[in-house]
């Protein structure tokens, strides 16, 4: 439950996880869309889910980052005019003939980042008292490679002087310095999947440190070895930034130690005792459900006929036959287990409000609000810690890897500002020289949703402030409207609610006719000459026949636009009311009634569906 709630804080919505600040102060939408694409492609949410769960057990978060490239062959059907060959051997396409279909095969490159969570016992850091991975003198991680992966590294020149077959056979032999058990096979068995035979892999150690490669200066290198005295290869750090591919941080910082303390370690004995007490209670329950019959064998010689059964007849004296009940120790066991369970929950910072079934007893609004605030305080602090030490550096790593290794254009979905439609954009390889600041916006999004109600109320206050009290400032509520619409309806629907007309331009009616003839939608702009456009579209509809009705629909939109413009002109000519008179001037004018006080139907104090102040789940708000 703790992991799920933290994951919801980190990934509150789709396609909106990154906040980027560029050198000009504007939001670089292309770079944001690129990082969002990599977040979806490498399935970062699944990796974070496993990392959060393992972090509570080991006390350490661990992620390994690398750039992968693979090739696959794609076959597609293409249509083209038939090819004719003249007597001179010149080939030409017959555009008048029917098109022919043929299969075309091409090679496609799949490249991108790969993020993998790994176990804490597979990581070594020297010295263990360092505060971060980059400050350590050396780090080492265990890698389990298949025969194909070993052969790939041999072909790339990483492993020198060894063959894949020789390495796999030599590492398959038991050794005290190698693993005695197969962790991948054991985890597969725990999941209920049985495997036949032995899963062979090469246990390779990848160390990251600084070495002098003969130039008199130490530089970052990767050292691969298969044992204490068996080095497979040494290469320079392939990343231009010089950073190490490991991201690791403790859940709670311990002074003088790189690794954190497990959340499970202090309560593991309680868990074992709870399991023992519960089993003892279940054993007691079996005896408690069976009655004990006591009788005098001398007075009841037929006691062997006293058998439990439906409508049984016992030939016995009822005064000399008694029933006894085994002590119901299972009740005491359940109470003891409940007490231990509560202690474990308190130690793991799991509140009662986090559990699917809350405790007994009726709670008032103040108690529910206090429980919700306590829950949010723990989870938000937990999620913010993960954002700070894991996700923010990870965003920088993703951008650096893309800027270094990607060589082809990539087509991604770009959201853009609120008011612009989502579209596909080709992003060329990134150029160096530009600096960006990346920040994960998961918890910030959730906190914004909690403050949405207060923002709406404060916006009404701002609307009522007279212009002379702004002291030269200008009030623009557009950012509030954009933020609220995007937070409530999401980044997919918000651009269709608030339409930014700055991104819409008037188009020549003849070009619109060509667009509609090819099946594209043409948008009516406010600056269009509606009468001229209607005449041109009517001629285009006659020429093309308008088979799908796009011309008719577009002409109706122009007619609606003409009526709207006429109504605006008539409304502007009507005289305005006097200040101070109900229904007169707008808010902000001296003598005008306060907002909501003009003659109308009574309105509620809060809009429908508003959250009660005692129920607002905001870690920054205290109980009333």
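^ structure tokens above, recovered residues below v
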């Amino acid at each position: 439950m703790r992991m799920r709630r933290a994951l919801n804080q980190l990934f509150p919505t789709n396609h909106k996880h990154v906040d980027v600040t560029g050198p000009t102060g504007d939001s670089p939408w292309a770079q944001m869309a690129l990082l969002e694409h990599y977040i979806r492609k490498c399935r970062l949410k699944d990796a974070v889910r496993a990392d959060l769960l393992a972090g509570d057990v080991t006390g350490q978060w661990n992620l390994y980052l690398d750039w992968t490239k693979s090739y696959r062959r794609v076959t597609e059907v293409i249509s083209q005019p038939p090819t004719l060959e003249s007597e001179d051997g010149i080939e030409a396409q017959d555009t008048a003939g029917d098109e022919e279909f043929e299969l075309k095969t091409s090679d496609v490159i799949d490249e991108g980042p790969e993020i993998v969570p790994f176990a804490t016992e597979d990581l070594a850091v020297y010295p263990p008292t360092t505060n971060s991975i980059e400050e350590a003198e050396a780090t080492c991680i265990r890698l389990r490679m298949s025969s194909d992966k070993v052969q790939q590294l041999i072909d790339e020149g990483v492993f020198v002087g060894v063959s894949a077959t020789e390495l796999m056979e030599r590492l398959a032999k038991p050794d005290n310095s190698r693993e005695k058990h197969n962790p991948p096979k054991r985890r597969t068995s725990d999941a209920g999947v049985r495997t036949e035979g032995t899963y062979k892999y090469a246990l390779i150690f990848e160390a990251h440190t600084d070495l002098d490669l003969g130039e008199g200066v130490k530089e970052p290198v990767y050292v691969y070895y298969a044992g204490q005295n068996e080095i497979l290869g040494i290469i320079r750090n392939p990343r231009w930034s010089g950073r190490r591919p490991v991201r690791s941080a403790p859940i709670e910082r311990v002074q003088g130690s790189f690794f954190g303390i497990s959340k499970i370690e202090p309560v593991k004995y309680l868990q074992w005792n709870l399991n023992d007490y519960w089993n003892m209670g279940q054993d007691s329950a079996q005896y408690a459900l069976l009655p004990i019959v006591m009788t005098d064998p001398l007075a009841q010689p037929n006691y062997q006929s006293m058998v439990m059964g439906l409508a049984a007849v016992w030939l016995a004296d009822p005064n000399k036959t008694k029933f006894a009940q085994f002590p119901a120790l299972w009740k005491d066991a359940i109470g003891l287990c409940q007490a231990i369970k509560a202690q474990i929950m308190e130690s793991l910072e799991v509140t009662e409000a986090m559990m699917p079934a809350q405790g007994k007893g009726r709670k008032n609004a103040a108690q529910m609000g206090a429980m919700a605030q306590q829950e949010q305080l723990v989870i938000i602090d937990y999620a913010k810690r993960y954002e700070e030490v894991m996700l923010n550096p990870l965003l920088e790593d993703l951008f650096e890897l893309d800027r270094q290794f990607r060589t082809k254009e990539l087509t991604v979905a770009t959201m853009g500002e609120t008011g612009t439609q989502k579209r596909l954009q080709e992003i060329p390889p990134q150029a160096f020289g530009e600096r960006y600041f990346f920040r994960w916006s998961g918890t910030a999004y959730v906190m914004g949703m909690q403050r949405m109600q207060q923002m709406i109320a404060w916006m009404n206050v701002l609307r009522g402030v007279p212009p002379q009290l702004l002291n030269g400032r200008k009030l623009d509520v557009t950012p509030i409207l954009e933020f609220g619409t995007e937070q409530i309806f999401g980044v997919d629907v918000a651009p269709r609610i608030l339409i930014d007309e700055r991104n819409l331009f008037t188009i020549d009616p003849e070009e619109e006719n060509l667009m509609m003839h090819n099946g594209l939608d043409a948008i009516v702009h406010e600056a269009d000459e509606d009468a001229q456009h209607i005449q041109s579209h009517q001629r285009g509809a006659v020429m093309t026949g308008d088979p799908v009705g796009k011309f008719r629909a577009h002409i109706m939109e122009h007619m609606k636009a003409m009526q709207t413009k006429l109504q605006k002109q008539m409304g502007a000519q009507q005289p305005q009311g006097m200040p101070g008179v109900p229904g007169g001037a707008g808010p902000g004018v001296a003598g005008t009634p306060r907002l909501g006080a003009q003659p109308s139907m009574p309105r509620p104090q809060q809009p429908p569906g508003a959250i009660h102040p005692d129920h607002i789940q905001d870690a920054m708000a205290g109980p009333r």
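The chain has a mean pLDDT of 78.
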